[in-house]
Amino acid sequence: MRIDLHTHSTVSDGTESPRDVMRAAHAAGIDVVALTDHDSMSGLEDAGEMAAGLGMNFVPGIEVSCRHNGVSIHLLAYWPDPSNDEIVAMLARTRDARVDRAKEIVRRVGVDYPLAWDDVLAHSDGADTVGRPHIADALVERGVFATRDDAFAKVLAGNSAYYVPHYAPDVVDAVRTFRRTGAVTVFAHPGADGRGKVVPTSVIELMADAGLVGLEVGHRDHNEHQRDRLARIAQRLGLVHTGASDYHGTGKLNRLGENVTSPAALQQLQDARGR
Ligand code: AMP
Ligand code: FE
Ligand code: FE
Ligand code: ZN
Fold it and tell me: Could you tell me the strand order of the sheet in which 184-187 lies?
């Protein structure tokens, strides 16, 4: 059984529609798949329908942009309640803040490179959540950089002078909110220090106290050392050890199923639902 619990569609910064992500997962031999767009649940219905039609088990999810002491944290939440006002408002506030923030990044980058807000709109059209990858795509289209990754390396990284943060809820509050509403949270790529600052173990402990259920140990952005460290932390804190691709279509090298979650771990996530 192949289980991939972290994928993105055109609802956020993936390059394929929710239905096409499900088709791609099926073609890759995935049996259980989650769609986890950044800060939006709007692809879940389509993806769920498509997955069921293809005979896969579907896990609805989101990847929530959070923060703690100024460090950006991505929190996966599975089985989020789409009718919960608090969750809907939290995600809407972040999505709104992302628009102003993206405009400010474009303004800064536009001083040195040929880039206008309309270029970004052409690449985020139809997306519910605007992010730096859309700005990267616009720069690639303008011929400034060859790939999304190049654009990140040169101008979009978190330590770049062009970088602007956006509002995001505190991660401990977010874990509590999802917990209270029956969802199951997993800390996404906690050791991905190639993208920016990561939080110390003490913050994982705070999150665990607030009701965090799992740690995404298996992820392309973790080396062997980080995987060992995170696996030990998961063991010590009683957190479920997951792994996933973080597929973004052609937007990133990540391939569906390149990291997976074990059936036993999926069962533990399911058992934590609504508890
Ligand atoms: P944002 O949500 O706008 O802050 O952008 C974060 C997204 O950009 C992540 O979800 C990834 O899809 C992508 N990303 C972040 N860091 C990098 C990087 N160093 N190289 C390529 N893509 C990245
Ligand atoms: Fe992304
Ligand atoms: Fe992420
Ligand atoms: Zn992701």
Answer: 3-4, 32-35, 57-68, 71-78, 184-187, 214-218, 240-243
Q: Which atom of ligand 1 is nearest to 246's Cα?
A: 12
pLDDT digits (tens, 9 = 90+) for 172-210: 999 999 999 999 999 999 999 988 899 999 999 999 999
Which of 275, 215, 208, 267 has the alpha carbon at shortest distance from 240? 215
* Pocket flag, ligand 1, residue 13 (CB < 6 Å): yes
Q: How far is the CA of 189 from the centre of ligand 3 (A)?
A: 7
Residue-wise pLDDT tens digits, 12-30: 999 999 999 999 999 999 9
Query: What is the amino acid identity at position 175?
Result: V
CA of 219 to the centre of ligand 4 (A): 10
Task: Give me ligand 1 centre to Cα 152, in Å.
Answer: 7
The 3-state secondary structure of 102-142 reads HHHHHHHHHHHCCCCHHHHHHHHCCCCCCCHHHHHHHHHHC
Report yes or no on whether pTM surpasses 0.90: yes
